[in-house]
C-alpha cells in the first residue's frame, strides 16, 4: 500500500471512529446559528425606523442660537410622495424589477431560486431576480456595494426589518426617491427633470420604461450618454410589459417605434449654507467623535447643533473680503500668502467662527484653521513661561534679566528680535512679556525648568514631543506646531478665570427622528491656574497691544484687548519670516490669526506684506468688537498698576469647595466616557474579527 493510501485509510478510520459527519453537521449548525445571531443583531441595531425621515429631510446645521444656519450637501434628490409619481412609472418599475413585490416579505424565494439556477447552469446572473426592491433600498441606504456573502446576508436581514416597519407603498416611494439614475441625479423627480424636462407625475409609459432601464446601469443605459443602448433597453421592457399583459401589443409597438425625446430642465441645488470652512470643520468633528459615517451624516437628515455665532463669522469673513491689497495679490486661485483665523467663546469653549484659508474654496478641502499645525513662535511664551513664573513667586513688577547670555552645554545664546537689550540689564516681568524679550523668556525657562513648561503646556492642551523639550521651546520652536483653534482654546483660559474648556464645534446631534445621538453640551473643564494668576496674566497681556507692546496699533479701534504676537523664521540660519501670529482676547471672544507661506521659497513674508498683519488684525478685532457685548475687563494694564498683583474679591471656603468638586466631577465624567468608548471599540473589534472571513468570499452578483 502506498504512503498516500495509508494516510487516506487512516483518515477514514478516524472519521468513522469519531463520527465525522455528525461533527461536521454540528459545526455547520453552530456556525449558522452564530451567523444568524450576528445578522439579527445587525438588523435590530440599524436605525431602520428613521430611514424614511432621513431620506425626506436634509441634514441641517443650527447655530449657537438654535437657528438654522444651513444644510449639508449630499447625494440625494428632491423627495416626492408616491402620488406625485405617475402610475405608469410605478407599474413599469414593479412589473419589470420585482413583479411579486406586493406579495413577498422582503426577499423573493422564487427569484433567488431562479438566480441560483442561472448561476449553476450558465455561470451568469444577467437575468436578475436575485434582489427585490426592498433589498435594493436597504443596499442603497445602509450597505456598501461590495459583492460578498456578508453584504448579501445583511441585505436579506435588513430587508425583513424594513418590511416590518413600512408598508409596500412607503418602500416603493423611498426606493424611487433614493435610486441613482445617472448623470448626477438621485430620485425619480430629478431624473424626470434631467431627461424629460418635467415632473415625475407626468411620466408616460415611454419615459417610465427609459428611467426603469437606466436603473440597471445608470452610467451605461441612460439616454444622454448612450442613446442607442437606452433605446434598445426601452424596447425590451416594452415587449416584456406587453407579454405580461400590462400594456397592449399595439401600445408596445407604438412605443418601440417612437423616439426618446430628451429635454434637460434640471437645476442642481448648491450647498445650502454660506459658512464653508465652519461646516467642513463640523463634518470633520462629527466623523471623528461619533460613530456616524460621513456619507450617513450628509444624507440621513441629522440635526447638528453647533457653536456657530453668525455675526462673528460674518465679521471674520468680511475682514478677508476685498482686502487682497493687504496680502499683495488678487485673492483668488492659489495666493502666495495664506491666512487662517479662529474665534472662540471663552465662557463655553465653543468655536464661534473660523476662516480656513484664502483663495478659491474647495469643498472638504484643507482647513488651515483646524488642520494646519505650525510653530507658534512667541505666542507660546505666556502659556509655557509666564504663568509658571507667577505661580513660582514672581509678580507683575519682578525684575528679570535682559542680557544676551549662553545656556547649556551647546551654548544656546538667544537674542531679542530687534537685537536690543535694556542698558540696565533687566526689565520688569510685564515689560519683558509686552516686548516679547527672548532673553528674558529663555532665562525664566532655564530657572524654572523645562519640564515645568512642558507640563504647563499640557494643561493648556498642547503636547510637546521629547525632541522639542529644550530651551528653544521658550521661543515657540515646535516641530509639530499648533492649529489656530488649538491656540485660541489655550488663550481662552485666561479670559475664563483660569479654567480651560477644550474647544469644540458641535453641541449635540439628533437623528431624523429627534433622538440625541451625540451630546457635548457640558464639556469637561480643567483648572489650569488660579483666578488671580489669570487676572495678572491679562493685566500683563493688555500691554501687548498698547504703547509698550509688539502689537501696538493692531488692536481694535476702541475697547481693550489682551493677547500676544509671535513670528517664526523660515529655517535655522534663515532669518526671513515664514509665519506671523496674533492672538487677542476680551471677556467675550478670543481670536487667533495666522499669516504665512505654505511653501518655503525665496520670498519673505516681511517683503510681501510688511505691515499687512497688523492692518488685518485691526480690521478683524474692530469688526468682532462691534458685534460683541463689549464686556470690560475687571483688571487694568500692568504698566498702570502700582500693585504687584491684582487683588481679587475672595470667595468663601464653600465656593472654592464647590468649584473643586465640579472640576473633579467633570474629570470623572470624561474618564468614564473614555472607558465606555474603549469598551465599545473592543466589542466592535471582536464582532469584526468574527466576520472577517466572510469579506474575502466573492460572489458574482
Descriptive report:
The protein is an alpha+beta fold. The protein has 4 domains: 43 residues; 184 residues, Penicillin binding protein transpeptidase fold (Orthogonal Bundle), CATH 1.10.3810.10; 221 residues, DD-peptidase/beta-lactamase superfamily (Beta-lactamase, 3-Layer(aba) Sandwich); 43 residues. The chain has 26 helices and 14 strands. The strands form 4 sheets. Strands 2-1-3-9-10 form a 5-stranded mixed sheet, covered by helices on one side. The radius of gyration is 33 Å and the shape is elongated.
CATH superfamily of the largest domain: DD-peptidase/beta-lactamase superfamily
User: Helicity, in percent?
Assistant: 40-55%
Can you tell me the number of structural domains? 4
The description of the largest β-sheet is: 5 strands, mixed
Tell the overall outline.
Answer: elongated
Tell me the radius of gyration: 33 Å
Under the CATH scheme, the architecture of the largest domain is 3-Layer(aba) Sandwich
Q: Order of strands in the sheet with the most strands?
A: 2-1-3-9-10
Q: How would you describe the oligomerization state of the chains in this entry?
A: single chain
Number of helices: 26
* Total E-strand runs: 14
Tell me, what is the CATH class of the largest domain? Answer: Alpha Beta
Distance between the termini: 46 Å
Structural class by SSE content: alpha+beta
* Average pLDDT taken over every residue: 83
Strand content: 5-15%
Low-confidence spans: pLDDT under 50, at least 5 residues?
Answer: 41-45, 123-129, 143-151, 651-660, 693-701
The CATH topology of the largest domain is: Beta-lactamase
